[in-house]
Specification:
This protein has about 250 residues and is mainly β. It has no helices and 15 strands. A 6-stranded mixed sheet has the order 4-3-6-11-8-9, with no helix packed on it. Keywords: Copper, Disulfide bond, Glycoprotein, Metal-binding, Oxidoreductase.
């Protein structure tokens, strides 16, 4: 309850989420304890990381597909494809920005970095954290981070690069910088290690702090049926209703 931060939504019907029915959902906190750490936090600083497939996910009949492209803010390129425009995030030297980074991919994980800059992580999955300085962060499907960047290291004449471990980029462009793809490379020496990331306020977990101390234990077996190519929970696969949910009786 009362959580704020970076969230996202997606379809839970079939594989529509893999085909792109997803988006960012931001909850702003008027009493944000980290507000003094940044100057800009708006739609322009929301960064979504996703994947894109050249065929609908349902055409695989349940088998996992391999993405042809990964996207930053909905834009990307693929091998032997055209040099499509990359996403551009315009910034001003001297201002501090809060980037809300959301991994809404269907499959791949990402390593996010901004070349020649450090990231100060201040929120993870809707929970404020003690500020932690890193130069890259690994982010898996469904995860979200907020990180502030103080632009003090990159000359104004050079665009920077929001980079993932394999291939795709976006452009972090300073005012008056040339309109060109960046040429810097992705290097990390201080990646995020989650063991070093701590909640700003420890809410304490429910239950008792020892093995078997949970209030309720639910065992759910996840499996895959190779005869039907369907995933199962507790031995059962999802069966679509014969009547649309909104037209069915309670």
């Amino acid at each position: 309850p009362k959580q704020a931060g970076a969230f996202w939504y997606h379809s839970h019907l079939s594989s529509q989420y893999c085909d792109g029915l997803r988006g960012a959902f931001i909850v702003y906190d008027p009493q944000d304890p980290h507000k003094a750490l940044y100057d800009v936090d708006n739609e322009s600083t929301i960064i979504t990381l996703s994947d894109w497939y050249h065929e609908p996910a349902r055409s695989s009949e349940g088998l996992p597909l391999t993405a042809q492209s990964t996207l930053i803010n909905g834009k990307g390129r693929y091998i032997n494809g055209p040099a499509s425009p990359l996403a551009v995030i315009n910034v001003t030297k001297g201002k501090r920005y809060r980037f809300r980074i959301i991994a809404m991919s269907c499959d791949p994980a990402f390593t996010f970095a901004v070349d020649n800059h450090t990231l100060t992580v201040i929120e993870a999955d809707g929970e404020n954290t003690a500020p932690l300085v890193v130069d890259s962060l690994q982010i898996f499907a469904g995860q979200r981070y907020s990180a502030t960047i103080g632009f003090v290291r990159t000359p104004i004449s050079e665009p920077s690069l929001a980079s993932m471990a394999v291939g795709i980029s976006a452009i972090l462009r300073y005012a008056s910088a040339p309109v060109a793809d960046p040429t810097t490379s992705y290097v990390t020496t201080n990646p995020l290690r989650e063991v070093n990331l701590h909640a700003l306020t420890n809410p304490a977990a429910p239950g008792l702090p020892f093995i078997g101390g949970a209030d309720v234990v639910l065992n759910i077996a996840h499996s895959f049926d190779f005869n039907t190519f369907h995933y199962t929970m507790g031995g059962y696969a999802f069966i679509p209703p014969t009547v649309p949910v909104l037209q069915s009786s309670a």
